[in-house]
Amino acid sequence: MWNIHGVQAFERETTGHCLQPYPDLTMLRRPETGTIPEDPGSYQFKDAQGRVIYVGKAANLRQRLSNYFADPRTLHPRTAQMVSTATSVEWTIVRNEVEALMLEYSLIKEHRPRFNVRMRR
Known about the structure:
Elements: E1 10-13, E2 27-28, E3 41-46, E4 52-58, H1 61-66, H2 77-85, E5 88-93, H3 97-111
Antiparallel strand pairs: 1-2, 1-5, 3-4, 3-5
């Protein structure tokens, strides 16, 4: 149903020490500039075992995913915990926002990610 143009994955990198409240936080490595498309799509954060821990959607993947690579001290605690748990992020490009929503919904139903609390049932 979805026209998949590409899937990219990026691995975790240790960032050294952080100031409180996240002293031992390691951050997922930010993808190289220009590698995240500006297209609509769905993205999936995965843990070290390859399990999907969070699924999201975006009208513009680059803009949305860039939010997760901000200073962890500025993120909501639950978001910071999710990013610190993730070891990779992948995305799937779709044709429009409606397809992104449908893909997000189906991936949440399939994987039941621990950080997606609203649509997991």
